[in-house]
Each structure stands twice: as C-alpha cells, then as structure tokens.
Design goal:
Helices cover about 35% and strands about 20% of the residues. With about 650 residues, the chain is of the alpha+beta class. The strands form eight sheets. Strands 2, 3, 4, 5, 10, 20 and 21 form a seven-stranded mixed beta sheet that branches. A five-stranded antiparallel beta sheet has the order 12-11-25-24-23, sandwiched between helices. A three-stranded antiparallel beta sheet has the order 1-8-9, with no helix packed on it. A hairpin with a 5-residue loop joins strand 20 (about 510-515) and strand 21 (about 520-525). Bound molecules: zinc ion. It is an enzyme of class 3 (hydrolase).
C-alpha cells in the first residue's frame, strides 16, 4: 500500500517538476525577447528575418528504490554561460581585452549577498578563457551554475552589453541523499574530447554531462532525454525578435529521460552503509580503511543492497570539482563490492569440500584428523588453530574452518604422492598439479568465483588467480582461499548458488525502466547463467556445513548467530594478504531452509589475529536483522 502511494506521489512530483520547468523556460525566453526587441527597427530588417533554434535541455531519468521511493532526481536551475564569438584568426590581445571587459561587468551583476562564495573577476576570466579545460574553443563555458533568481534577473537585464553571455535553463542532477548509494549510482561529469566525438552523433550538446561510472554510465542511453527546441525568429544579425505576444514559443518540448526502478531496498541499503561506516570507524588506528557488503535475493539475483565504504557525494562532480572535493572523493573511488577483488580465505571451503567429494578424494562420512598442521610435501603449514581440530568430516571441517581437512583435499586432488617420483617437481606440476588446479578453478567458476557475475554495472572485476611455478603448495593453498582474489559480489553470487540449489543467477540492480508517463519500456527478468554440475546431495552437504558454522558450539559464528530466529547458514573467512594484514569475511544466507537473502561482507586489511565474527559479523548481523524485521512488517500490512 505504502509503496503504491509513494510511487504515485513521485510520479506526480516528476510531472509537476516538468510543468514548472517548462514554465520557467517560456518565461525566460519571453523576457529575453521583450528586452532584445526593445528599440529594434523591425521594419527595416523584416525581410531578412529567418528562424533559429534554441535548445531546451531535457531532464534526465530518475532512480527509485524497489518500493518506488525516489533516490535520484533533478532540480530546475539556470546556468550563465559564455560562448566565445571569436575565431582562431582573431588577435589574442583583443580577445583577452574583450573577455576582461565582460568579466568586469559581470562581477557586480553576480554579486549576491546570499551567496557565501564571492565571484571575482579573475575567477570569471579563468572560466571564460577556459585554459584549464579540454573543451574546444567554441564550446560554451559555464560561468555560473545554479544561478540565483537575483543573478539571473540582473544578467538578463544587461545581456545587450554582454556579447557571448547567455542564461540557459537546465535540469541539474540532484543526488538528494548525498553519499547514499553513491557506488551504485556512479557520477556524471562533462565530456572530454573523446567522449564528445562519440556522443555528438547521438543528440548530445557539448555542455551535457554524461554518466562516467555506476548506473549513470550503464544506463546512459535510457536516462538521457531528448532535448527540445524553440523556433525563434531572428533578424539578419541572428538576434531573436518578437512580433506577436501570443506566439507559443515551445516548438518541440524536451522529452525527459526514462526512470529506473532499482532492486535495492532503501532501508536495507541505508543500514548496510551505516554498519560499514561504524565498523571502519571503530577500527580507527588499525590499517582498515575500507569495507564492503552485498545482499542478493538468491532466487532471482536482485541486488537488495550493495555498499562500499567510504562513499562519495556525486553532487560534487556536477560543477567540476575543487581540489578539496577531489581529496575527499579519491579514497572512495573504488567500489570494493564489485571492482576490487580481495583474498577470500576460508569462505571458499564449502566449495572445496564439495569438489573433494565430487572428485571422490574424500567420502561424505570420512573423518580426517587435524593435529594442528600438515606437511605439504616439503612445507609445513599450520591450521589456524595450532592445537588442532581432532577428527572432522566435511561438514564439521566447514564449521570449524579446519585447514588441514582442506589441505588434504588439495594434496589428494594434485596427487602429492607423485611429487618425488621420476621427473621431480616440475614434471609433477605439469602432469598432475596444473590440471587439478585448472579443474578446481573451473568448478569455482561455475559458482561465480573468478568470472564476472554479469551485474549491470561497468568496471566489474573478474577476480584473479595466482598459480606459482615450481612450488608444491598451489593446490592446498587454493583450497583454503589463499591463491585467489574475489569480490564480495562474486562471493554473494556463490553463496546464492549454493543456497538456491545450484542455479547461478545473474545479479542485477535495475528491475524496470519506465518512460516519464510511467509506461513500461523494459522489465528485467531473473536470468540463470548456468546450472552447476554438482548434485543436489552435494549442495545439501555444503549447506549443512554452513548451518553448523552458525549453530554448533564449535562453529566459528555460532556465538553471533546461534540464537537468531531467522536461521542463518554462513561461513567466516580470514585471509592472509601477505602485507601483514588479514581480510575478514562473513558470507551467508537465510533462512536456512527457504533462502530469501544471501550476503557477503568484507573488512579488508585488518590487524592479524582478529576474529571474522567480530570484524565482519556485526555488519552481517545488522543487515540480516533489518531484512527480517522489514519482512515481518510487510507481511503484516498485506
Ligand atoms: Zn584444523
């Protein structure tokens, strides 16, 4: 109910905004013609009159959350811009003198007591000259965006003394929730020369901003509207004239871009972002600088939340960034949930176990003894608990996160018994280790590890693998998640695939694309990328192991999740980074028997020797608590 109301409300707002905007445009144009017309001798030049076009920029499509709540919109605004009337052959001194004269006139006109930042002649000249810009000399330069009413009125009154200056109406992007969702939405900025070459054939103006990252880039073609134009009667000098008060100036209305309805839940997204920020702030003074988390619907692939800390404010990109703003943006540039792979550590262990079972190197009820470490054919590797885990079958080994069990699978897959036979390590690697490794990798790929997940975002990382030549530990270490790097999104897809019975679902952020009238243009359907080659019994085995993680006394996350009503199955992970830090993970899904949400959380580069359930666990807990409380509320309403 609530969501229907909201979407109706937002549609109405959008429409009102459009009406208001067009109204402003008409008013502005009429004003300008009245003033320009003053004192003109129509009769003399009438015969030479012709028509010229003025562009009416189209507002961009909006972003809404899955319940129809507006997340990103536009607001009407006026920009004072300068287009140089000079050509290359004009004397640079004349050009400079002219620009300085105009700037001098503009300073008092742009003075507004309400504005904190004062305009100076130097600043205006710099903008008009555009020396630090990569745009061509004839491209319009924005002198003042978001001009105040007072500024617009005063500049309009004096346009006849300001050659090349124009006041243009614009709908500017409004990231109304500031840093919220910034890595999902991405940001926009003006085009460089290369982009302009591409976009000018598609109806863009040189002054248009385009999407550079995130959904703004991915859905650029849907978000961009179609610019409108007015047919303006001009005299022989190209100046607009006006003969009839009742002329309808709008020739072609701008058509706003299409709206995107996202899969994310605003509340869950907000809680996820806050939990990540809280976590990183609580770890001040340690090497931790980032954290990231993803929540998917494991049955459909819909992204319910996705966040990377720190976030940035995309509004800062709209006007061109100050150095200070850039210093704030820079550490937030990477989307750690999608673009930046981290060592996954023990989160891969349920798949390692399944691979061992599928390949027949371990049996479902076989118990393997952990004395606290294992010889990896020349290298002694410890288990994370040097006291040892005793005897464990695969499920118990997942729950205890026992390295020795996983090393054993790695050794058996790579046939370590043949290492010291004829030919030595090199020939063993070629004959046994490398092929086993490739097969292992292919199995991981089936679940989304080490391949792109297919999400509708640009710059997705496929993760990476590091096979090291001439050492005997490749397989055992890969089996515990040490020789690879994956993104939180890949791990969330992998957990979803285990949870939903083996379908690798393509994750997506946009559910629907609607035109400004609300007509459906495109509806995204869940897409199965592949069905894994593992039997339902093997997947069930892995799920049972994950359930033990969060419920058995020896499970590594039972302390945090053992008493939760929503019955979560999960896996902790701690990965050595080789930089004297460790990545801390929690992945999981809930409810155990009827999965509705799958999550992955990473807190990378933590101090060595912490516990995953303490480092990543609190974020996971807040996300799941929120999701299940929300769900209760919705069920109650329906
Ligand atoms: Zn162990």
């Amino acid at each position: 109910m609530e969501s229907e109301d909201q979407s109706l409300h937002s549609g109405r707002l959008h429409f009102l905004f459009l009406i208001m905007f067009i109204g402003l445009v008409i008013l502005l144009l009429r004003l300008s013609f009245i003033q320009l017309g003053k004192g003109e001798d129509y009769a003399v030049k009438a015969e030479a009159n012709r028509y010229a076009q003025q562009i009416l920029p189209a507002p961009r499509g909006q972003f809404k959350d899955r319940h129809g709540e507006i997340l990103v919109a536009n607001k009407p605004s006026f920009t004072i811009q300068y287009t140089s009337p000079f050509t290359k052959s004009d004397d640079p001194k004349t050009v400079q003198a002219n620009i300085e004269a105009i700037a001098e006139k503009l300073v008092p006109l742009l003075d507004d007591p309400e504005e904190k930042e004062k305009v100076t002649k130097d600043k205006i000249v710099k903008l008009m000259m555009g020396t630090d810009e990569y745009l061509s000399r004839s491209a319009p330069r924005k002198i003042k965006t978001k001009a105040t009413e007072r500024q617009v009125a005063r500049v309009k009154e004096n346009l006849q003394d300001l050659p090349g200056i124009a006041v243009i109406p614009e709908a500017i992007r409004d990231y109304r929730l500031k840093t919220f969702g910034s890595h999902i939405f991405g940001y926009m900025r003006k085009m460089d020369e290369k982009m302009w070459n591409e976009y000018q054939t598609k109806g863009y103006l040189m002054t248009d901003l385009v999407g550079i990252t995130g959904l703004e880039k991915q859905y650029e073609q849907y978000l961009k509207g179609i610019h409108g134009a007015t047919r303006v009667e001009v005299n022989i000098n190209g100046d607009p004239i006006r003969r009839d008060n009742n002329v309808d100036f709008i020739e072609k209305k701008p058509i706003p871009g299409n709206d995107l309805t996202l899969t994310i839940d605003k509340k869950l997204q907000q809680v996820t972002e806050e939990a990540l920020a809280e976590r990183v702030n609580a770890l001040k003074g340690t090497p931790v600088k980032n954290a990231a988390a993803v929540a998917l619907d494991p049955n459909t692939g819909e992204v319910l939340a996705m966040a990377s800390y720190p976030a940035f404010d995309p509004n800062a990109w709209l006007d061109g960034m100050s150095d200070e703003e850039y210093a704030q943006f820079q550490p937030a540039e990477w989307n750690h949930a999608v673009e930046y792979p981290h060592e996954p550590g023990s989160t891969v262990k349920m798949l390692t176990t399944m691979i061992g079972l599928k390949e027949g190197v371990v049996k479902p009820d076989e118990k393997i003894f952990c004395p606290g470490g294992l010889d990896l054919s020349g290298y002694y590797a410890s288990c994370w608990d040097p006291k040892g885990h005793g005897l464990s079958d695969g499920r118990e080994a997942i729950a205890k996160s026992c390295n020795v069990y996983m090393y054993t699978i790695g050794k058996r897959l790579a046939k370590h018994q043949f290492i010291f036979q004829n030919g030595g390590v090199k020939s063993w690697m070629e004959k046994y280790d490398k092929p086993a490794y490739e097969k292992f990798r292919k199995y991981q790929n089936e679940f989304g590890l080490g391949v792109k997940t297919g999400i509708d975002l640009p710059f997705e990382s496929a993760g990476k693998y590091n096979y090291q030549p001439e050492i005997t530990t490749n397989m055992p270490f890969t089996a515990i998640g040490q020789n690879s790097n994956f993104t939180p999104l890949q791990l969330a897809q992998y957990v979803s695939t285990i949870a939903n019975g083996g379908k690798r679902m393509k994750p997506y952020l946009v559910k629907e694309i609607k035109d400004p009238e609300g007509k459906l243009i495109k509806k995204m359907e869940p897409e199965v990328l592949n069905q894994v080659s593992f039997s339902p019994e093997l997947l069930q085995y892995a799920r049972e192991g994950m359930w033990k993680v969060t419920h058995e006394p020896y499970g590594t996350a039972s302390y945090m999740f053992g008493r939760k009503k929503y019955d979560v199955a999960g896996k902790t992970g701690t990965a050595q980074t080789g930089r004297d830090t460790e990545n801390y993970w929690f992945v999981g899904y809930a409810p155990y028997n009827n999965p509705k949400i799958a999550i992955a959380v990473v807190v990378p580069e933590g101090r060595v020797g912490m516990h995953s359930y303490e480092m990543a666990g609190p974020v996971a807990e807040k996300m799941l608590d929120t999701f299940f409380n929300e769900e209760k509320k919705e069920t109650a309403v329906n």
